[in-house]
């Protein structure tokens, strides 16, 4: 299964269903199941704050349903449906949308217990 390492607290926000747009500097043509891996990086939280979150583990499975570059949004019809119930306008108005590439996630299933594993950069293969 494809996996994506995401910094905390954002990985946990995705697992809880609070954040359904993941921002990247690169896009992907991949669509389908995606393991959400919580990285150990301290870009957004210091070491003490990280103790409140699982790190170095897959914490959820989501379905990647769309990937759009919001810098080209003028070419998009804002009412265009990217996935069932999700329009371009929904993505542009999501509180966590920054872009330039927005990965749209649906059907998130959090794990009861984190599955410890080492993450990688980019889109990588995770073997359950």
Which keywords apply here?
single chain, mainly beta, Archaeosine Trna-guanine Transglycosylase, Chain: A, domain 4, two-stranded antiparallel ribbon, 8 strands, 12% helix
Task: Explain what this protein looks like in three dimensions.
With 128 residues, the protein is mostly beta strands. The mean pLDDT is 94. The strands form 2 sheets. It has a 6-stranded mixed sheet with strand order 2-7-4-3-1-8. Strands 5-6 form a two-stranded antiparallel ribbon. β5 and β6 (86-87) form a beta hairpin. The protein is globular and about 40 Å long. The chain is 12% helix and 41% strand. The chain is built from 3 helices and 8 strands. The longest helix has 6 residues, at 10-15. The chain has one domain (2-125): Hypothetical protein (Archaeosine Trna-guanine Transglycosylase, Chain: A, domain 4, Roll).
- Taken in chain order, the helices and strands follow as EHEEHEEEHEE
List low-pLDDT spans. none
Q: What is the fourth-level CATH superfamily?
A: Hypothetical protein
Shape: globular
Architecture per CATH nomenclature, i.e. the level-2 architecture: Roll
Q: Briefly note the CATH topology name.
A: Archaeosine Trna-guanine Transglycosylase, Chain: A, domain 4
| Total strands | 8
Q: What structural class do the secondary elements suggest? A: mainly beta
What count of structural domains?
Answer: 1
Strand order of the largest sheet: 2-7-4-3-1-8
Distance between the termini: 8 Å
The biggest sheet, with number of strands, parallel, antiparallel or mixed sense and barrel status, is:
6 strands, mixed
Q: Would you state the CATH class? A: Mainly Beta
- Radius of gyration, taken over Cα atoms and rounded to an integer in Å: 14 Å
Query: In percent, how much strand structure appears in the residues?
Result: 35-45%
Q: How would you state the average pLDDT, rounded?
A: 94
Tally of contiguous helical segments: 3
Q: What share of residues is helical?
A: 10-25%
